[in-house]
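Hi both,

Apologies for the delay on this - the queue was longer than expected. I finally got the glutathione-bound model through. Below you'll find the protein sequence and the ligand SMILES exactly as submitted, and right after that the structure tokens for the full complex including the ligand.
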Amino acid sequence: MILYSFPSSPFGCKVKAVILACGLTKNITIEEFHPWQPDSFFRELNPLGKIPALKISSDEVLFDSPVICEYVMEKAKKIQALMPDKFKSLKIQALVDGMADAAVSMRYEHFFRPKHLQCEDWYDRQYLALTCGLQYLDDRLDTDLNQELLFENLCVATFLSYVDLRFSDKSFRKNYKKLYGWYEEYMQKHLFLEAAKAKDHPVPTNITRLQK
Ligand SMILES: N[C@@H](CCC(=O)N[C@@H](CS)C(=O)NCC(=O)O)C(=O)O
């Protein structure tokens, strides 16, 4: 199987964490692909042009990250072990994916759009979704998260690695102390997750920037 992803993608990191937790690293090759590269082969794999995408056979590709995660867990027969309370897991995943959508949108606004076209109101709305989501998790830490190897914990931990990578200037570590305390302990306890953390990576030079 081939996973198309990029080292900084929060959705890709979540999938990588699940692959590691399921012990399927040997079955899946990771191909780094930046979704803003003008590359028609990728649209044939995922018409949405988004990563992650998982090629599972010569004629089948799965997207998006929740579908891929569930497929990987099912393949490894780990659904029950990683999601004993399935709807709790799926709800936390939805929250984290929503924050990731907002965070990635903020990143795109500032990185891919020239300054004179950027919309600060749009940026602020995404920022609100991100910070309200972080506050929600910080408030509900004791009921919603724990130190076990569970899908919801993997979703939150990998997403916080992305937040650390892209928003280290925002004092989130100070504002959501409980959540970041949980994160530090979690990463110490599950050292294999280091390999799934969001990492900075040079963006290819042929990416399409927004111009109009
Ligand atoms: N709902 C999708 C979101 C994936 C997503 O937004 N990926 C970003 C990279 S982190 C992407 O490929 N963006 C390209 C684009 O928006 O055109 C999932 O969970 O897989």
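Main takeaway for now: The two ends are 38 Å apart (CA to CA).

I'll put the files on the shared drive as well.

H.
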